[in-house]
């Protein structure tokens, strides 16, 4: 169980709330201009919050997954792009904790505690599926070299260290860390998605990039044992969705109170007295409360459960999967209902309220919830454990 003192939690949440309020002021403008937002990312990372899950034995606060989830949703409500950028940073902490040598943990955790930012370049496009990785890590002339092309490389433009997922000489997936300024590596800001614009999730090109052997850890091995790496990764994604949902509902309420008009047949004096609008807000708040409660519950379970068997891991993965489905559903519903409840005026480009729907629609595509629903059904109906990877 993660032991977290109340002052630690209070300070972390307070810091996150302050950062969120600052981010919120410029979020719409930065979305409209596809701003790289280096200042905002640096402010978030320099707060020390990016080290919150480092184990105490390596000098970290070890605040646990519930704190990570709560802080992520605060940031995501203000700007879900900024909240998504350190997702792979926390994923890397989990990877290191699971499979790195003690000397590697000491080195990389010290880097993070010193304020260094990490990001991962794993995904590629053009292959058969997401697991079809063509990037190679080969041993040449006594050293290791990376060659390949990555996409959806969220956060790499901001990172000090980049973790590359690649196949070694015998086809086993490895995770190689290289400094951002490594010769032969080029990071492009060519992400063109209509949502999550500020993640800069573009292309990373690797041309004979030299890798220090001490900076290579196993990747496949991390999913062979009972480490909740995939569940923890999905917990962060669900927290981002919940943050989008919360902001969408708050924006809807604000617009209804300040600007929207009641429908002509309602006989109401103001939109906030329109019975169908009242019911619509009530429905959103009920669904949000259920999703948020489930997310808090499973985050606590991740902190408190001693995972020692395949059954332990399967149960937690399914529980997080349920939270992710609920979070995805409320993010899409709330960001869509914003316009149905607020009315035509809310679609004005100058308001940029559609960024909430664009962000929800884009982020929830990260991994399809239809496969989570299937995995959940297989688990409860047929006793089939979900597969082990980043996506459940």
UniProtKB/TrEMBL annotation:
GO BP, sorted A to Z: L-leucine catabolic process
Compartment(s) of residence: Cytoplasm
Reactions it catalyzes: dibenzothiophene 5-oxide + FMNH2 + O2 = dibenzothiophene 5,5-dioxide + FMN + H2O + H(+); dibenzothiophene + 2 FMNH2 + 2 O2 = dibenzothiophene 5,5-dioxide + 2 FMN + 2 H2O + 2 H(+); dibenzothiophene + FMNH2 + O2 = dibenzothiophene 5-oxide + FMN + H2O + H(+)
Gene Ontology CC terms: cytoplasm
One MF annotation (Gene Ontology) recorded for this entry: monooxygenase activity
Primary site of residence: cytoplasm
Family label: Belongs to the DszC flavin monooxygenase family.
The protein's name in its UniProt record: Dibenzothiophene monooxygenase
Species per Swiss-Prot/TrEMBL record: Musicola paradisiaca (strain Ech703)
């Amino acid at each position: 169980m993660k032991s977290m003192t109340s002052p630690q939690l209070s300070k972390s949440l307070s810091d996150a709330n302050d950062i969120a309020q600052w981010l919120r002021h410029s979020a719409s403008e930065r979305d409209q201009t596809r701003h790289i937002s280096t200042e905002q990312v640096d402010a978030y990372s320099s707060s020390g919050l990016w080290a919150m899950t480092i184990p105490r034995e390596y000098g970290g606060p070890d605040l646990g997954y519930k704190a990570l989830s709560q802080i992520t949703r605060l940031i995501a409500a203000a700007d879900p792009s900024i909240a998504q950028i350190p997702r792979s940073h926390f994923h890397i902490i989990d990877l290191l904790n699971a499979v790195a040598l003690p000397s590697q943990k000491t080195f990389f955790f010290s880097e993070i505690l010193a304020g260094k930012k990490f990001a991962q370049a794993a995904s590629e496009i053009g292959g058969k599926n997401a697991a079809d990785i063509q990037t190679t890590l080969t041993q040449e002339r006594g050293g290791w070299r990376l060659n390949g092309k990555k996409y959806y490389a969220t956060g790499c433009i901001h990172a000090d260290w980049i973790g590359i997922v690649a196949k070694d000489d015998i086809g086993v997936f490895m995770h190689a860390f290289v400094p951002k300024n490594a010769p032969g590596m080029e990071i492009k800001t060519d992400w063109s998605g209509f949502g999550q614009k500020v993640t800069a999730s573009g292309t990373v090109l690797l041309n004979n990039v030299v890798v220090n052997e001490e900076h290579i850890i196993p990747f496949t091995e991390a999913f062979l044992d009972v480490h909740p790496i995939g569940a923890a990764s999905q917990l962060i994604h669900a927290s981002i969705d919940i943050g989008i949902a919360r902001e969408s509902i708050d924006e809807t309420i604000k617009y209804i109170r300040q600007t929207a008009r009641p429908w002509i047949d309602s006989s109401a004096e103001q939109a906030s007295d329109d019975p169908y609008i009242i019911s619509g807000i009530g429905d959103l708040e009920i669904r949000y409360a259920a999703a948020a409660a489930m997310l808090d519950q499973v985050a606590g379970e991740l902190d408190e459960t001693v995972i020692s068997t395949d059954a332990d891991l399967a149960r937690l993965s399914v529980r997080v999967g349920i939270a992710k489905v609920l979070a995805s559903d409320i993010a899409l519903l709330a960001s869509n209902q914003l316009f149905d409840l607020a009315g035509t005026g809310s679609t004005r480009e100058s308001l940029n309220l559609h960024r909430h729907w664009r962000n929800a629609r884009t982020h929830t595509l990260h991994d399809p919830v239809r496969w989570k629903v299937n995995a959940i059904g297989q688990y409860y109906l047929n006793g089939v454990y979900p597969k082990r990877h980043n996506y459940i």
